[in-house]
Write a structure and sequence with these properties.
- With 54 residues, this protein is mainly α.
- It is built from one helix and no strands.
- The chain has one helix at 2-42.
- The longest helix has 41 residues, at 2-42.
Length: 54
């Protein structure tokens, strides 16, 4: 009985660990894409200023 319980707990913990790694990996990709988008925005050339005639 105890052996089956330990086996079930072990399998459950391994499954949760594997899914947590996958989640963290996805989160890392999301953060990286946000950073790259920010870099793209900051690397754009500023439009020339148009002088207004008053």
């Amino acid at each position: 009985m105890i052996r089956k319980l330990l086996l079930a707990i072990g399998i459950t913990s391994m499954t949760m660990t594997a899914s947590a790694c996958n989640t963290v990996k996805g989160l890392g990709r999301d953060i990286e894409s946000v950073g790259e988008a920010g870099d793209d925005l900051t690397n754009l050339e500023a439009p020339e200023k148009v002088e207004r005639k008053v």
